[in-house]
Design goal:
The complex is a heterodimer of chains A (496) and B (485). Chain A has helices at residues 12-29, 35-59, 91-110, 118-137, 141-150, 152-162, 167-200, 207-210, 217-234, 244-250, 253-278, 280-307, 311-332, 335-366, 382-395, 402-417, 419-444, 459-477, 481-494, and strands spanning 70-78, 83-89. Chain A is mainly α and 496 residues long. A two-stranded antiparallel ribbon of chain A has the order 1-2. In chain A, helix 6 runs antiparallel to helix 7 (167-200) and helix 16 runs antiparallel to helix 17 (419-444). Chain A is globular, with a radius of gyration of 22 Å. Classes of the chains: A mainly alpha (496), B mainly alpha (485).
Amino acid sequence: MSWYTLPAGVPWLTLALLLPLIGAFLVLLAPAAARGVIKQLGILSALLTLVLMLLLLGGFQHGPGGLRFQFEEIHHWIPSLGIGYHLGVDGLSLFLLALNGLLSLLAMLIADPRTPRFKEFVLLLLVLETATTGVLLALDLILFYVFWEAMLVPLYFLIGVWGEGRKVFAAFTFLIYTVIGSFAMLVAILAVAAITAAQTGHLSFDWTVLVQHPAGAVAQGWMFLGFALAFAVKMPIFPLHSWLPIAYPATPTPALLVFAGLVSKLGAYGLIRFNLALFPAGARGWGPILATLATIGILYGALMALLQVDLKLLVAYASMSHLGFIGLGIFSQNVFGVEGALIQMINHGVIIAGLFLVVFMIEQRTGTRARSQLRGLTRPAPLFAGLFFVIALAALGLPGLNGFVGEFLIMLGAFTAYLPLAIGAGLGVILAAWYVLRFYQGAFEEVPVQPAALTEMRLNEVGALAPLLAIIVVFGIVPSFFPAAVDATVRAVLRT
Amino acid sequence: MIDTSRLGIDYGVLLPELVVTATALLVLVLDLLIPPGRRRWLAAVSALGLLLALLATVPLWGADRSAFSGTVIGDSFAAFFDVILLSTGLLTVLISPRFLRSLGLEYGEYYVLTLAAMAGMMLLAAATSLMTIFLGIELLSIALYVLAGFARRNLRSQESALKYLLLGGFASGFLLYGMALIYGATGATTLHGIAQFVGASGSSVLLLVGIGFLVVGLAFKASAAPFHMWTPDVYQGAPTVVTTFMSVATKAAAFAVIGRVFVAAFPTIRADWYFPLAFVAIVSLGIGNFVAITQSNLKRLLAYSGIAQAGYILLGILPGSSEGLAASLFYVAAYAVMNFGAFAVVTAVETRVGEGGTEIPAWTGLFYRQPLLATTMTVFMLSLAGIPPTVGFFAKLFVFRPLVEAQLWAPLAVAIVTTVISFYYYLRVVVVMLTAPEEAGRPAREPVSRVMGAILVFCSIATIVLGVFPTVVFDWARTAAALHL
């Protein structure tokens, strides 16, 4: 069933890849001084992309279908090596795609036209959107890798040129970490194709082919490791996280929305799409270890978040802690855990983007991000405080808001798979309440230090937060709509 | 039994080489007739000759014409390299006049020597005998010795030429000695004869020592470590257009020989040559990528980068398969486009700024002064690092794949670790260009010459287009790599 049927024969997914690129090309042609025009071009192309992705969301046929992909496009690319241009959407990528469109649009909306070299800034954001979209759509492993690596370039420049503080150092640190992981994945990609080619007689990098011919258990273990390294760095999973406190605070906020909100989730997406689906035996072997690391990440991130004075760092560590939950859910390797992880991926994207936006707005108003210097923002800006409070509650997993649904399912999955880890993760929930509420109380309650400093939210700022809040509330109240859509895919991936 | 079809005189096989040689002679004569102010025309004549030679390579595709007693062959392999070499030569000739004028070096001999070196390189691509290989190497070397010292009044250029000459002489000695030993072991000078002998009787100590010396001589020309010592100094000292040409074309020619000799003549004794060649590849990757980090001069940085790139190209030879060779050939083509582009940008900057233009600090804030140069340089740097969607990515992917299939994990692991390291210095160049200059008041934008601009745009578009659609060139490389002797 679906809400409507999109006309077949239209390359919808290629269109989704091209729209931001066309926008980037138009931006390239625009004179650098026409900052307003450039911003509108950016918003327009991001908006059109989002509309297209929402169309796909509505036109997606839900129901039992297993691993069937929709809106598929297959073309030859490098036929002599069995490399193809294969795009498709299933329950795993469907909602992330929409999140991608939404966060990219938000990034455009809050981008400040007074930024130096604004033209290049917008251009890189649009290129980044194509790359992240490609990562979600690609079903050929080489194509996936191309998009995965291509994501690095705009991010590297966005941090290295427009960042704050030690931006070049931050950009390099991020780059080196991710590239080491990527190359491990590249070798694993080449290996899995070679092993499958030995079985079938045809070299192919197509996911749908590879998934039908699992390799031997030992080889699977190694290849699992190769892929997991790339994805674990991006998420990040403890102990591969040390780039995060360097890179996140240095990233300019519009780019950070996509970076923290989406790119980290692409790591989790990769773990499900490739690690669980292609290497079931490898996942059985490595699963407990990675689940343990993920749980350590939950607690470590939460404890570090408690220690931070800088709000951007606080949210960065909170993000790491939340991603630990997602990792735990994935490596529970049961339907509850993986579905919970998928839901939490969307929720986390929305919540983290919201938190970073709030930090950004606070910094714009007060000139500081230090928790210790903020007091009593509620009195001059009650609306601001109220909206933030909703996001904060979602972040700590209050029932009735979206954060609860994912966390609950993950805990359920973890309890079946690894009881001790589930208890550890439960501790993480308590810590989350502590750091989130302290953040809110510290900044918004108590007696104001400098009462006149803060202004109320402007309309466009409310507009930027509104879609996030809508998702937080709607997904919290009607969570059932979501699992139904991904259930078939998750069961197929887990082979249950 | 003597295969009589291999004995014939067939000028068609050597047509591209002949056209280039004839052009060289023509330019030599014209140089005497044309007034000094009009020497630009010599560049035009050379370019025309190279274009004609490019046309002359067309009949060689898919051919298998051995001629002159089996000393040369006209096949897709030769044609593939001819196209790379001729295109490089053509672009070099086009960017030269303005640069030479800025240094006061506009002499006709420059074009004659470049064309002579081209003829030698193309002969190498077609050579199937130890004799013709040596002939080609000497022809290109002697021309390049002179070209390296072409800036006569510049001490660095002098030093560069002398170093190249002395060390190159040694390398030639090794090469010749190795050839003598191989002849002694097999009783043949044609690769065909050597392959037959080796296929029948296996290897011997004499043969292996000979192959070892051959590797030394060829690795020197390809500037692969540990025979790379000359590269940074010569690259830095030689006039930048010469370096541009040398870094791309010489390496391509050297790999034409390495590919043909090892994959076609010695496939049966791969176990014997695998370790020396793997050693050269690994050391090149290590030294090139590590030492490049510390360089503060762009020509030296690109020299070390070139050493590392030689290591990647060698990786494709290691499995000893035509799949691997095809990957190497693709890499050579990719390297030609991106490295030529990178050096061309250096040339353009140096034309503007003068000799200090090759030092990295002079590139600070290039994005704001010369956006075209900086943007194209960024493309070339990303491609050399191997980041998609550029051709450098597929070049690396294609050479890594046969290594995985042959399960040669050690060279692969070294390649991957050093590639990660290489990201540091390639991207540092980009970051320097993006860093806002310290002094207040931006310097006015300086336009780039139209020819240079067009060539840079062409190279960077080729880098990206080949990075998105590598199939055509890769299929050519596969055709070329299906070697016959």
